[in-house]
Amino acid sequence: MGIPHGQAQTSKSEDHVSYLLRTTEPRPPVTWKNLATELQWVNVVALTAIPVLGIVGACHTKLRWETGLFAVFFYYVTGLGITAGYHRYWSHRSYKASTALQWFLALAGAGAAQGSIKWWSRGHRAHHRYTDTKFDPYNAAEGFWHTHIGWIVLKPRIKQGSVDISDLASNFIVEWQHKHLNVLIVLVSFVFPTIVSWLGWGDARGGLVYAGLLRQTFLHHSIFCLNSLAHWLGESPFDDKHSPRDHFITALVTLGEGYHNFHHQFPMDYQNGRRWYQYDPTKWFIWGCGQLGLASHLKVFPENEVRKGQLTMQLKRLRETQDNLVWPVDKTDLPVINWEAYQSQAAECPMILISGFIHDVSDFIEEHPGGARFITKFIGKDATAAFFGGVYEHSNAAHNLLSMKRVGVLHGGVPHILDEKNVPPSQRLRITRFNEPACRSDSFDEAEN
């Protein structure tokens, strides 16, 4: 699909989404009066009837262990049709699949009853291109209910944003599945498990109820969690610009799609759980197909770039912590005092000189771990040598605390200030933004000089 007509008229200061919002007329809001006409009744009936029939059927049908195991197995097969097929292959092209694997994934995906490859992938590409905006079909800003099931049962308030699906439109398997989807859903999702259970161990009814209806119900909500839970539960270790989150629980219920923050940053990576210990059966399936020659060109985002994303978020969180701390007054904001004035003021208020900085120690004399005597004997004097090892090599905490007691700079004391030890340890790795001058500390001044 091409760029919407009129996009070329977008002003230089207006982004694509803002332009679309300005030029697109949304549907009226849903109210109790128009609810009946705004529901997508086919989806409402399917999402209601399947679980109801499954629950009623389970109340009257004994679960045999063979059927139970097959239902779990078939859940994974049809689920992989979505996660390995619809999602990672057709939506993101994260690997190349052989013709045989494409047919398998297309049939398995039909058994998940999540729409056609073409429809699903078109919506998912829009989701990535317009994440958290009104043109995202499952916009997280609309709330958990909307992202989980609301967008399926209600007609969209605004048309999905444009995306390119020319590769899907030219794929024979995709077009064939799209054309015959309704028949395929019935055959694969319900008839197939019924026949297998009947021929395998004589439990046709159980196959329909447990491997058909109830499996389908669980799989529906499992895949729905890819749009809801994955944008609500967890952390953002790679980027927090948008709503996707990483969480192990989400991975468990979505066949490995729970590391969603990573996925939105690096969508072309065939992995979702990039570490070997992260639960991602979809990744293992694709890798296994690669070993068998059914898949190739498994894409992996460069580790160096992944670590940049992690580092960015780590620095951002450190910056937030840093901004909530109180730091010493910069030396350029302190008064310059000559030696005579320093001694005169120290006679009235306990002050000591260390490395060119004058410190008010009135509230620390009795708190000094080494005893008050070691401070009082340096009041009005230069205690630089004593502080830096002449008497005791003070800890980083002591250096940090001392810097908070600065009240002035000794005139002519610049040589002391240029000593790198006068930069408190807590400030030596202080984080600055790209467009922000570096922390005006002594070490930076020395480097500039």
From TrEMBL:
Tell me which Gene3D superfamilies the record gives.
Answer: Cytochrome b5-like heme/steroid binding domain
Q: What is its EC number?
A: 1.14.19.1
Query: What Pfam families does UniProt report for this protein, alphabetically?
Result: Cyt-b5, FA_desaturase
Q: How many cofactor units bind, and how? A: Expected to bind 2 Fe(2+) ions per subunit.
Question: Which Gene Ontology MF annotations are present?
Answer: heme binding; iron ion binding; stearoyl-CoA 9-desaturase activity
How this chain sits in the membrane, per its record, is: Multi-pass membrane protein
Q: Which GO terms describe its cellular component?
A: endoplasmic reticulum membrane
Q: What does this protein do?
A: Stearoyl-CoA desaturase that utilizes O(2) and electrons from reduced cytochrome b5 to introduce the first double bond into saturated fatty acyl-CoA substrates.
Instruction: Identify its protein family.
Output: Belongs to the fatty acid desaturase type 1 family.
Protein name, per record: Acyl-CoA desaturase
Q: What is the source species?
A: Roridomyces roridus
